[in-house]
Amino acid sequence: MNFKKYFIANQRVNFSQIGLLVLSILLLPTLMSLFLGYTAGNKFNPTVKSLDIKTKIVIEEEGLIKENLDAFFKNLEKGKVLKLVENGKSDFSIKIPKGFFESIKNGDNSKKIQIKREKNTAAVEFEIIKSIGNSLIKNDLKIKNYSELLANNSKDINLAGELIKEIESKSIVDYKENIHNGENALTGTQYYSVIGLSFMFMTILSTIINTKKKELNAINKRLSLIPVSTVKRELYSFFDNYISFFAISIIYILLFKLIDSSNFSGNILLYSLLNMVLLFASLSVAQFIATIIKEEYISLVGGLFNMLPIFFSGMIPFEKIFGENSIFTKFVYQNYFKTYFINPYINLIKGKSIFEYIVGFAIIFLIGIVFLVLSLNISKKREEY
């Protein structure tokens, strides 16, 4: 029997399980991603004007300079960007040293704004605080001109208003640019659609391993009646699953693009290429494990693979629990699963190159070949004995 006939026969068997297949492999990751994407939307697209970041301001400048700086920060508080804290715990502190504006005027930048960040504060808030501090020393905000006005004792009531407009507009731009350079640049649905896809790959891997369960033996027995050798049957089964699950993964991507064209934006062929490599490796590992594993451990191993996207994709904010610099946080966020199952898709959505991953994906593909060959050899030896 050739592969075409096997494929058709196997698809007839799969068709009887189509409801379970669609529910577990396509529908569940899709619904999970949509739910998390929309409920976490504010996390990925926070409203700047309602942050109320607890900040302590220390101004060592004197006279009219201090008065105008006080007015400037109070305007930021009025706009709900900052919540000024005099006594008590603050998340950030901004210290403007004496002679700061004079140093800018002279162009030596010897005096610098000091920004202090407390532990476990949000990264997005830190970017806003930095952008406020940076905007005070940027030439394109005409600080030199403002400092000259202040130094000349020109008490312009509108000065603070002009300055805050300049800084608000610039800080928002900086803030968005900084966010765009990280994962939080994505919308909630964009980010979690990628997480959902990685979850789908692990679900597929778990499904293949679970085909050894007793309740599925009837299906396997029916397929075993097809007159081909064990090795051929295993190989046919592998590529049959590969084609079917690849089609489902592309349907998943197209479904999210249909919901919002910004999801999985870019070249669909590149997404398809990523899916092909990762799916090939996942199925190879799954087939190898399914070949050697004892039945009593099947559910445990399948469950462990399903947990990978939850722990190693960045879904859980471990930096808030253990701190950004903890060994555990660094281990969780700097791992091969996230590097190859998450980051390349994020790069494509942002319009970035995935050239840096070529060597890694080549290795992943070779690993897939090794596991596939191993599983086929084990099956062949079992058939001989």
How would you describe what is shown here?
By secondary structure, the protein is mainly alpha-helical. The chain has 2 domains: 3-43 and 187-384; 48-183, no CATH class. Helices cover 68% and strands 5% of the residues. The protein has helices at 3-16, 18-39, 41-44, 63-78, 100-106, 123-135, 143-151, 159-180, 188-210, 217-224, 230-259, 268-292, 298-312, 318-322, 327-333, 336-341, 343-349, 358-384, and strands at residues 53-59, 82-84, 92-96, 114-117. It has a 4-stranded mixed sheet, covered by helices on one side. The two termini are 23 Å apart.
Provide a concise account of the structure shown.
The chain is mainly α and about 375 residues long. It contains 18 helices and 4 strands.
List its traits.
mainly alpha; four-stranded mixed sheet; 385 residues; 2 domains
Number of domains: 2
Strand content: under 5%
What is the count of DSSP helices, taking H or I runs of 4+ residues?
18
Helix fraction by DSSP (H/I, runs of at least 4)? 55-70%
| Biggest sheet layout | 4 strands, mixed
Number of strands: 4
CA radius of gyration is: 29 Å
- Helix- and strand-based class? mainly alpha
Provide the spatial order of strands within the biggest beta sheet.
Answer: 2-1-3-4
Global geometry: elongated
Span of the ends, CA to CA: 23 Å
Give the SSE order as H and E letters. Answer: HHHEHEEHEHHHHHHHHHHHHH
Mean pLDDT across all amino acids: 75
Which spans have pLDDT < 50 for at least 5 consecutive residues?
A: 139-157, 167-184
